[in-house]
Structures are given as structure tokens and as C-alpha cells.
TrEMBL record:
RNA polymerase sigma-70 region domain span: 42-109
Protein name (database record): RNA polymerase sigma factor
CDD domains: Sigma70_r4
Native species: uncultured Woeseiaceae bacterium
PANTHER family per UniProt: RNA POLYMERASE ECF-TYPE SIGMA FACTO, RNA POLYMERASE SIGMA FACTOR
Listed InterPro entries: RNA_pol_sigma-70-like, RNA_pol_sigma-70_dom, RNA_pol_sigma70_r2, RNA_pol_sigma70_r4_t2, RNA_pol_sigma_r2, RNA_pol_sigma_r3/r4-like, WH-like_DNA-bd_sf
Length: 200
């Protein structure tokens, strides 16, 4: 498939609308007809979730939005690899996560961001990570986690994916997903002095 620019994705998604068609049907239309309007509808449905995932992962809104555009371009190019065995959003978040990992290896900007996150992760023992007032508790909790733990916890709690969907998105066995979630919750509890019943 040919790839078009990010501006075209935004324009097409704003004009799209197919509430009666499920994701798999839209994917089939894109693959059969290279239907850009059908793909635009997929973008419209899922762009908020993809952006929120990347924003929480990078903690940089501008960078996350750039990555979201790249992720949708990659999704258009790789759509033929979606087999329909899992959910489309699970596959799409896997594309977004892969885009994040690939770009991180190429950009020094990611190193600066992750270094800052690592510095914040040293704060523990019930102390609050310094954040602006509009940052949620989840963002504070994420600061004490490793990159892998952050990704899995975001997919689970912010994106609402099941363990099986996280397996697909993060390319992990289900046992590893469960272990990472358990480890992440334990780390959060210890860092913020949270009782077990306060954070499930």
C-alpha cells in the first residue's frame, strides 16, 4: 500500500463516519479497495486511545502526537498483517508501541525524557512525585516503573485492554503480562505507601 502524509490522515479522519460497520469490516474494505475513507474511520475511532497511550508512555504531548501520526502511517502500510484473530485496537496499540521503541532508539530526545522519568522514579517512601496540577495519579504512579512496566500498566489501566490483548500489543506471553502487572502494582504500593485494598 502507498503511504500518504499525516495531514491527509487528519483530513480523512475528520470527514469519516461509519457507525454501523465494525473494525474488521473496515479493515476488509481498506485491504480490498485501498479505501482511504474506511481507514480514516478507523483513525477517527481510535486516535484518542493511541495518543493517550503514547502520551502516558513518553510523558511528552508533542512527541506523542508525532508518534501517533507515524503509528497510523505504519498501520496503513502494515494493515495486511492484521489477521482479525484479536481486536483491531490491540493490534493498533502494538504498532504504536513498536513505533515508540523504534523511534526511541533513533532519537536522543527519548534519552532525555527517560532520564527525567528515571530521576523521578527515585522518589519513594510515600513522597509525591512532583507533577503539575493537571497530571493524574496514574501519571505519578507510572514515574516509579520501568519502561516495560509502564507500557503494560498503561495498556491495562488506561487503555482497558484484557491480558490477552496486552499479549498482542506488547508481544509478551500471558504469564509475563500478569507478572509485569503484579510487579508494577507492588512497586506502586511500596513507593506511595498504598494499602492493598486502595489499589487493585
Amino acid at each position: 500500500m502507498a503511504i500518504w502524509g499525516a495531514e491527509s490522515i487528519i483530513e480523512i479522519s475528520e470527514k469519516s463516519g461509519a457507525p454501523g460497520i465494525d473494525d474488521n469490516e473496515l479493515v476488509a474494505k481498506v485491504l480490498a479497495q485501498q479505501d482511504s475513507a474506511a481507514f480514516g474511520e478507523l483513525v477517527r475511532r481510535h486516535q484518542s486511545q493511541v495518543r493517550n497511550f503514547l502520551r502516558k508512555l513518553t510523558r511528552d504531548f508533542v512527541l506523542a502526537d508525532d508518534l501517533a501520526q507515524d503509528a497510523f502511517l505504519h498501520a496503513w502500510d502494515k494493515l495486511h498483517t492484521f489477521r482479525g484473530q484479536g481486536t483491531f485496537i490491540g493490534w493498533l496499540l502494538k504498532v504504536a508501541y513498536t513505533t515508540f521503541l523504534q523511534s526511541k532508539r533513533k532519537s536522543s530526545r527519548y534519552s532525555e525524557i527517560l532520564e527525567e522519568v528515571g530521576h523521578n522514579a527515585e522518589v519513594g517512601g510515600g513522597q509525591q512525585v512532583q507533577q503539575s496540577e493537571d497530571v493524574s495519579n496514574l501519571d505519578k504512579f507510572l514515574a516509579v516503573l520501568t519502561e516495560e512496566e509502564r507500557a503494560v500498566m498503561i495498556l491495562s489501566y488506561a487503555c482497558g485492554l484484557s491480558h490477552r490483548e496486552i499479549c498482542e500489543a506488547a508481544n509478551m506471553p500471558i504469564g509475563t503480562v500478569k507478572s509485569v502487572i503484579f510487579r508494577g502494582k507492588e512497586k506502586i504500593r511500596e513507593s506511595f505507601d498504598i494499602e492493598d485494598h486502595q489499589y487493585g
